[in-house]
Amino acid sequence: MARRLKLLTGLSTLALGGALALSGCAGAEGEGAEGVGAEGAKTAHHGEAEGEGGESEGEGAAAPAASGGESEGAALVDVAKDKSAYLSALQIIRGHLKAGVELYSAGDRALGPQHLRHPQAEILTTLSPAFAAYGAENIEPVIDRLADAGDAGASPAEIGALEEAVVKAVGAAGAAAQANVKEKLLAVSKTLTVAGDEYAIAVDDDGTIVNLHEYHDAYGFIATAIEDLQATAGKSDAEKTAIAAALEQARIAATTAPGITPPAELKPASTIYGAAARIEIAAHAL
């Protein structure tokens, strides 16, 4: 049940996380506000209670009462009506899979398949109604095939081919929403906020990794957000400027998690939150 709340509770804290980041980055430069620290995110974000290779920090605890539970999370974010939330959910799905495929290709047959399994709960709890609302095909079957292959120990080449099919299906599902540039930028802001939550769980206050699994999530989410920004084209000068600004900020966020393996020096989660806030500001200027 805790995993079923993963996306819902993450998205339900976006308003809080965005507000904190906005207030914190008002006078900040570069990496964002230090006022948005890991502690707030650690108490606001989700937990996963299904025991994943001993990664208990942040993963083992039940979702906090502050999130309001599954029904309140669903009420706060209706992906069938909020295109930016819908696109963000799709980015998060791809982020899980990106992390899983990279780990699997590197020979990690424990964490890799776990990440490939994560999107199922998120699809079932939040996206199924949205597919119908936007006239999109349900992407769950193609993701199931990828996850099943990972569980079965398929070759990295087969996993890669199945991932390509998933990326194509997710792209088609996103295109069905016919979102405008503003909604696409807001989606990226949402995704980065969730990435910040994950990163805050992953990295302790002293800058050490305490939850590698959540670091992988943050890496995947930021990477897929950047991919979507790179594929976004603006028509007006204002849209082009906003996209360029958002891409610059997303790349700043990516300095916290530049690869699937954590860097030697870890930056604070505020780097990600600050980038998310600035992208939100750029979006609302359109």
Helix and strand pattern: HHHHHHHHHHHHH
Query: Would you identify the regions where 5 or more consecutive residues have pLDDT less than 50?
Result: 1-76
Domain count: 1
Overall geometry comes to globular
**What share of residues are in beta strands?**
under 5%
Q: How far apart are the first and last residues' alpha carbons, in Å?
A: 39 Å
Can you offer a commentary on this structure?
It is a single chain. This protein is mainly alpha-helical and 286 residues long. It has one domain. 65% of the residues lie in helices and 0% in strands.
Short structural description:
This protein is mainly alpha-helical and 286 residues long.
Record the SSE blueprint.
Blueprint: H1 6-12, H2 14-24, H3 38-44, H4 69-76, H5 83-105, H6 111-117, H7 119-134, H8 140-151, H9 156-175, H10 181-202, H11 212-230, H12 237-254, H13 270-284
Question: Which features does this protein show?
Answer:
286 residues, mainly alpha, 13 helices
